[in-house]
């Protein structure tokens, strides 16, 4: 009888510890974990977890790295990395998405800021990580010169798509365009 009570108390203590651990994981992290579990990546995208959403350290928000490697379009054969920083109010607010490579693109500036409508005015808590990744991939398949962050790239895209394509190839291989040296993002 004494052993049975000891076992019950031990089990109760373990359950309390488990509940305590779960309560330290914020709703934002629970949602991100759910998004990661249901993720269906296209073959042209890879994802790595830099700071896990399972971490209970609120000083280190979850961070993912996504690499987009388009297999068609202007950025074919490129391999472009993005950092996704999630805050504690996700999915109410989208993650901060930053391009880690300097590329010549109408919707990405030289500081890595990304102009994608679903990361700004069209964001909704109904959107998820899958939506963000598809949006990033779509940026490389269909650049949008009508909402540019890099006005020079957008202007060239609108004026001369053949010259734009040549400039993208030059920039992707680490070339210089208008005195700006771009990163080599060609997949080797």
Automatic annotation (TrEMBL):
Domain of life according to the entry = Eukaryota
Known InterPro entries for this protein? Ub_conjugating_enzyme, UBC, UBQ-conjugating_AS, UBQ-conjugating_enzyme/RWD
By its UniProt entry, which PROSITE patterns does this protein fall under? UBC_1 (PS00183), UBC_2 (PS50127)
Task: Specify whether ATP-binding is a keyword of the entry.
Answer: yes
Give start-end positions of Basic residues composition bias.
Answer: 1-12
Which segments constitute the UBC core domain? 27-177
The pathway that the record names for this protein is: Protein modification
List of catalytic residues: 115
The UniProt annotation puts the region (Disordered) at: 1-23
What SMART domains does this protein map onto? Answer: UBCc
Q: Which SUPFAM superfamilies match?
A: UBC-like
Task: Cite the entry's keywords alphabetically.
Answer: ATP-binding, Nucleotide-binding, Transferase, Ubl conjugation pathway
A Pfam family for this UniProt protein? UQ_con
Q: Which family does it belong to?
A: Belongs to the ubiquitin-conjugating enzyme family.
Name of the molecule in the record: UBC core domain-containing protein
């Amino acid at each position: 009888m004494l052993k049975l009570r000891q076992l019950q108390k031990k089990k109760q203590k373990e359950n309390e510890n488990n509940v305590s651990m779960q309560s330290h994981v914020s709703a934002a992290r629970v949602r991100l974990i759910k998004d990661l579990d249901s993720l269906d990546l296209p073959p042209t995208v890879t994802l790595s977890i830099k700071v896990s959403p399972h971490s209970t350290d609120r000083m280190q928000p979850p961070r993912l790295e996504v690499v987009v490697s388009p297999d068609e379009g202007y950025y074919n054969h490129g391999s472009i990395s993005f950092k996704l920083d999630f805050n504690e109010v996700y999915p109410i607010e989208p993650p901060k998405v930053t391009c880690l490579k300097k590329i010549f693109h109408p919707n990405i500036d030289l500081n890595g800021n990304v102009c994608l409508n679903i990361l700004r005015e069209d964001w909704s808590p109904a959107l998820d990580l899958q939506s963000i990744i598809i949006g990033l991939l779509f940026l490389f398949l269909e650049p949008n010169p009508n909402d540019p962050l890099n006005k020079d790239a957008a202007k060239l895209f609108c004026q001369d798509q053949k010259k734009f394509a040549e400039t993208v190839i030059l920039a992707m291989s680490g070339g210089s365009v208008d005195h700006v040296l771009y990163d080599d993002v060609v997949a080797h």
